[in-house]
Amino acid sequence: MSDIKAQAEKLDGWELDGEKLKKTFKFDQYLEGIAFVQKLAVYAESQQHHPGISINHTNVSITWTTFSKKELTEKDIAGAKATDNVLKA
């Protein structure tokens, strides 16, 4: 197993799906999820590395992968960690 995938498996609540990291966040209200996505978008833009984002009412699903390399990279691990930090902020 690669070092990147070993790191991915240590992330709290993140699912390793092939070359993707996925996690769904549940919010009490729709606008809380939207605010979370807006904060995450600021981080993603600053890194020029953007996750897949799906919003379904009060559930927000985030997917990190590096499409240009077709594999997980350190950027994806950092993105998952940053996503969790945005939630705590």
Features:
single chain, 89 residues, alpha+beta, 45% helix
Mean pLDDT: 94
Radius of gyration: 13 Å
Q: Choose one word for the global shape.
A: globular
Helix content: 40-55%
What can be said about the biggest beta sheet?
Answer: 4 strands, antiparallel
Q: What structural class should be given to the helix and strand makeup?
A: alpha+beta
Please give the count of helices: 3
Portion of residues in beta strands equals 15-25%
In short:
It contains three helices and four strands; from the N terminus they run αββαββα. By secondary structure, the chain is an alpha+beta fold.
Describe the structure.
- There is one protein chain.
- The chain has 89 residues and is an alpha+beta fold.
- 45% of the residues lie in helices and 24% in strands.
- It contains three helices and four strands, in the order αββαββα.
- A four-stranded antiparallel beta sheet has the order 1-2-4-3, with helices on one face.
- The longest helix is centred in the middle third of the chain and has 18 residues, at 30-47.
- It starts with a helix and ends with a helix.
Task: Explain the layout of strands and helices.
Blueprint: H1 3-9, E1 15-17, E2 20-26, H2 30-47, E3 52-56, E4 59-64, H3 74-88
Antiparallel strand pairs: 1-2, 2-4, 3-4
Helix pairs in contact: 2-3
